[in-house]
Every structure is written in structure tokens, then in C-alpha cells.
Amino acid sequence: MTALSMRGVHKSFRGRSALHDCTFEVGRGSVTALVGANGAGKSTLMSIAVGMLAADSGEVAVLGHARSRAGISPGLAYVAQHKPLYRSFTVADMLRFGEHANSHWDHDYARGLVADADVPEEARVKTLSPGQRTRVALALALGRRPEVLLLDEPLADLDPLARKAVARTLMADVAERGTAVLLSSHVLAEVDEMADRLLVLGHGRIRLSGALDDLLAEHYLLIGSGDPATVIGAGEVVETRPGGRTHLVRGPRAAAGGDWLTEAASLDDIVLAHLAAPEEVA
Ligand SMILES: Nc1ncnc2c1ncn2[C@@H]1O[C@H](COP(=O)(O)OP(=O)(O)OP(=O)(O)O)[C@@H](O)[C@H]1O
């Protein structure tokens, strides 16, 4: 049930690598969070998945079709980081534009999402706040009734209530229609709330991927002085924090003994450790 896949994708800009050997899959009926520092390559990865940018090498498939040329696949919708909309259009014009441009358009659904966001349809796009613009861009994307939805930092401009509303809408879409969602975010608390899978990108490389529940179960914090190798068994130390007493370990949880303590690792602990770890460990 793979909706989007990349295999061995590379991309460089003027000789500088932006993506290196990226391989992953996004499944139907799931929300995958794409996480990474500024400049990690998230937008580049999304632009390649959408077909707005060509990879230098590697394979990209959307809904079972390999993509070789630029162009948005039918069945895919994308909300870019800067939410491009026609500034002089009213919201109603934008919705009509969506209706004319898409054969699978659901006008009532899109209008309902705009109404839920309390954005007046007669307002011009240029007068909307960034958060309102996000809600309109999302309504336009969801109105296409996509099977794959890519969202580049969709929640960044939203207040906490709007975030919850958008999260509810997306999760309902995923549950009811089996939509595959890939969304980038800098806020791990949001990821924890919305996503069931995680993809961590560091300097253009996939550093970690998997189901959130599995990743949380596979990692723990080990605290104490001495050599962690004496207690972690088959596990591996992903990162040792400054001071040398706290280690983020991946593997079966060690039985605490002697001076050692173990604690559950949070998503922040896991992501930050993998981003800080040397590449061969991640
Ligand atoms: N069109 C371009 N020309 C040259 N370099 C580019 C271009 N687009 C991206 N890059 C470079 O590729 C790298 C990855 O950029 P990208 O925008 O994909 O990162 P990001 O993870 O989305 O960052 P942010 O979180 O800040 O949005 C950066 O070093 C960036 O400078």
C-alpha cells in the first residue's frame, strides 16, 4: 500500500549535495512527519516528490507510477511552504479556480473547510493573515480529494486552536479516505500528535525512519557513570550527552543495575540524538 516512494535519490545544487541516497516509502492511510534542521533538504525532497524539481539520479514513484518528468501527478496535492495563491483573487475566486482546474474537485468540502476556518469568501487573498492563507491553501489542496498530500510546514503560521482544527481535518481525511500524508515540521510536539511515522533528514541524508511507536519502544536513556557497553547488550549508543553520564541507546532496554538508571526516551531525545550522531550510527 505504498503511495509514494523514493529509492537512491540524489540532488545537488551547483556541486553541493542537497539530498544523498534518499530511500523511503510513504504508505496509504498514514501521516509521515518529515523532520530536520533548516537546510536539511526537506523542501527539496518534497519538490522532487511533487515533480516540480528533477532528481539527479534515483527513482521516484507516486501511486505506482515512476516519475521521470516534471509535472504534478494526478492524485497528488501539494501545499508549498510559502502557500502560493493569487494575491488579487478573492477566496471565492480561488475556490472557483480550484473547481475549473481539477476534475475531482469537491466544492462543498473545500468551501466547508474555508467556512470552518472563519475566512470570508469575499476577502482578497492579499488581505488574509498568513494563518488564513494557510487554511485557504489547505482547502484548495484537500478539495482536490488527493490520494497523496504533501504539506511543507503546514502548521507553522497557525495558532494553537487552528493547529488542532487542521490536525483533526487531516486525520479524518486519512482515516476516512486512506490518504497518504507527508508533512514537514520543526515542532516535534505536533509530530507526536499527528503523525504515525517519522522520517528524519540530516544534511540531505535519511538519518532515521519508522513507525513512531516502534521508534519510541526501540530507544531509551541510560544514565550513570562508567562504560555503557557493559550494560547495553546488543543495543548501541546513538549519542552520549555532554558530561558523559546520559546516553541515548537503541536496542532492548537494559535492566538497570548498580549505578545505572534507565528512562523512556521522548521523541525529542530520539530525533536530536540521531541528528547529532555520526552518520554510520544512524
Ligand atoms: N534552488 C536552489 N538553488 C541552490 N541551492 C538550493 C536550492 N534549493 C535548495 N538549495 C539548497 O539545498 C539545501 C536544502 O534546502 P531545502 O530548502 O530543501 O532545506 P529545508 O530542509 O527545506 O530547510 P528549511 O527548514 O529552512 O525550510 C540548502 O543548502 C539550500 O541552500
Mean pLDDT: 90
Q: What would the CATH topology of the largest domain be?
A: Rossmann fold
Portion in helices: 25-40%
- Strand residue content: 25-35%
How does the major sheet shape up? 6 strands, mixed
Overall form = elongated
What CATH architecture of the largest domain do you see? 3-Layer(aba) Sandwich
Q: H/E series, N to C?
A: EEEHEEEHHHEHEHEEHEEEEH
Number of helices: 8
Task: Give the ligands present.
Answer: adenosine-5'-triphosphate
**Rg, alpha carbons:** 21 Å
Please give a structural write-up.
The mean pLDDT is 90. The strands form 3 sheets. The chain has a 6-stranded mixed β-sheet with strand order 6-7-8-3-9-10, sandwiched between helices. Strands 2-1-4-5 form a 4-stranded antiparallel β-sheet, covered by helices on one side. The protein has helices spanning 42-50, 91-101, 107-116, 130-143, 160-177, 188-194, 212-218, 267-276; strands at residues 2-13, 16-27, 30-36, 57-62, 65-66, 76-79, 148-152, 180-184, 197-202, 205-211, 219-223, 236-240, 246-250, 261-264. The protein is elongated. The chain has 2 domains: 2-203, Rossmann fold (3-Layer(aba) Sandwich); 214-276. The longest helix is centred in the middle third of the chain and has 18 residues, at 160-177. The chain is built from 8 helices and 14 strands. The chain is of the alpha/beta class and 282 residues long. It binds adenosine-5'-triphosphate. The site of adenosine-5'-triphosphate has 10 residues, from helix 1.
